[in-house]
Specification:
Elements: H1 3-59, H2 62-72, H3 77-105, H4 110-138, H5 143-165, H6 169-195, H7 206-240, H8 243-258, H9 261-280, H10 282-309, H11 311-315, H12 326-334, H13 336-351, H14 355-380, H15 382-404, H16 412-436, H17 442-460, H18 465-473, H19 477-491
């Protein structure tokens, strides 16, 4: 099976898994939001945001390095994993200690502190799980990670909502997250040990550890900056505007975050192949990148238009207590286009040894993000944080494209034509959804809108019938090689 075939196959499986995962996750988030209200929801996600920022000091970019290097030479997987685990173990204790000190120094109340303490357990376990699955990704296998992601969310939904109904409060709800993280940790370790036949051990191979650190530090710097960028807004909202504003902002943020399974699934399987193409086939590297941008643009635009038109009705899913989240949602959802396209851009830079440029771009974005949050949150609160999200994701997109042009011969016209057609189709869909919104429920109007969009896009030539068929064929081992390779060659 070729690497191109693996891209399609892994994307198909992981996409299906992530759809289930996000549906379950969003269902739980909706139930949680309705049950606890904006202020308590703000406390819950403040704790998660706080520990997530510190979690990167455990990994320090090792996951990306493991996937990339193992994809190049799978025979070294055991040695690389053992050396990474030897470094991560002491880092886990240091990161946990730093998190505890920080939350106490900032003077948060007892409930918030206890939520952070419980979340630390998830922080450590999830970091090791990410390491194990990064090894599996290096073998071009995402099946086990797909299974794990769904079971994780089922545990959170069942245990978390059960705890709330039993009157256990936020502490037990956070405990459900730790329980799910424990399952993921055990499952991923079993996959590495028994499926890949790689021993789980610690090896203090100092020359190799030094090599890993030298390779990973740009990834680490980027990951630190990315975590700060993604979660600092919730922390600043808590400090500058209060927990209620965090809860309102999280409604908009969670909707956007839930939709990221599409670029996440695609680039998860694309990244190892891009690393290989960088070494052996630069023309195919360019084709794969341009096609990724086309697919993600086609997917993101109707979601954006639909969410803007239906924002009032979407917010009602969380009860009228969250009515002030309408404008944060409308503004934040515009950034989805740039968020989607930034996934393959970042993957290309990392795969092509341009991680330092990716890190420099993120550093600029983080500085702008913190400055804008301090400027806008005191005046516009959650809406101000949403404006920051839109501006900074656009900035990251522009900086990324500038860097991409230094690596490949990027043919922007091809993407521009597809985006223009998709935008026209999305506009037609938006008009139909707006006019039909008064007569149909939100599920029916969404289905009608999707049909109108894809029918319009097909009529405009935005994609081919073969593009859809290739997704279904990706589940067939016998057909996948021939069909996908034919499509790639047609683009050359």
């Amino acid at each position: 099976m070729t690497k191109i075939a693996n891209i399609a196959k892994n994307t198909s499986y992981l996409t299906l898994a992530l759809i289930l995962q996000k549906v379950i996750s969003f269902t739980y988030f909706t139930l949680l939001a309705r049950y606890v209200g904006p202020a308590s929801l703000g406390q819950y996600y403040l704790a998660i945001s706080f520990t997530t920022i510190f979690a990167i000091f455990i990994d320090l970019g090792f996951a990306n390095v493991l996937t990339r290097e193992i994809a190049k030479d799978q025979s070294r997987a055991g040695r690389w994993l053992a050396s990474v685990l030897a470094v991560k173990l002491p880092l886990s204790f240091l990161a946990a200690l730093a998190t505890i000190l920080a939350i106490n120094l900032l003077g948060y109340d007892g409930l918030t502190r206890s939520l952070v303490y419980i979340s630390i357990v998830s922080m450590v376990l999830d970091s090791f799980t990410a390491t194990f699955f990064s090894v599996v990704r290096g073998f071009h296998n995402l099946k086990y990670e797909s299974i794990s992601s769904v079971i994780f969310q089922l545990i959170v939904l069942g245990a978390g909502y059960g705890a709330l109904l039993a009157g256990g409060g936020l502490r037990l709800a956070m405990g459900a997250l730790a329980l799910a993280s424990l399952f993921n940790f055990i499952y991923s370790a079993i996959v590495v040990r028994h499926r890949l036949k790689i021993a789980l051990r610690l090896i203090y191979d100092w020359p190799l550890i030094k090599e890993i650190i030298m390779i990973s530090w740009p990834f680490a710097a980027y990951a630190i900056l990315q975590r700060i960028y993604t979660y600092i807004d919730s922390v600043l909202l808590s400090i500058l505007a209060g927990d209620t504003q965090v809860g309102l902002y999280q409604v908009a943020f969670k909707i956007i975050f839930a939709l990221q399974f599409l670029p996440l699934a695609f680039t998860a399987s694309l990244y190892p192949a891009l690393s290989s193409y960088w070494q052996s086939n630069r023309e195919q590297l360019t084709v794969s990148f341009e096609r990724a941008l086309n697919y993600l643009a086609i997917i993101s635009l109707p979601i954006i238009v639909g969410a803007i038109v239906l924002s009032d009705r979407i917010i009602l899913l969380f009860t009228s207590d969250y009515s002030q989240a309408v404008w944060p949602l409308r503004i934040s959802i515009l950034s989805l286009f740039f968020i989607f396209l930034n996934f393959p851009i970042g993957s290309l830079l990392n795969a092509c040894d341009a991680q330092r440029r990716n890190t420099a771009n993120m550093a600029v974005v983080v500085i702008v993000s913190v400055a804008l949050n301090f400027l806008l949150i005191p005046f516009w609160q959650a809406t101000g944080a949403s404006v920051t999200v839109l501006v900074t994701n656009f900035l990251m997109f522009i900086l990324g494209l500038v860097a991409v042009r230094r690596i490949i011969v990027y043919r922007a016209k091809r993407n521009f034509i597809v985006v223009t057609k998709a935008l026209v189709a999305a506009t037609l869909m938006g008009v139909a959804v707006y006019l039909g919104g008064s007569y149909l429920n939100i599920v029916a109007v969404t289905l009608v809108g999707a049909i109108i969009y894809f029918a319009s896009l097909l009529a405009l030539g935005g994609f081919k019938k073969e593009d859809i068929l290739s997704i279904f064929r990706s589940f067939s081992r016998g057909q996948i090689n021939k069909n996908i390779e034919t499509e790639i060659k047609s683009e050359l």
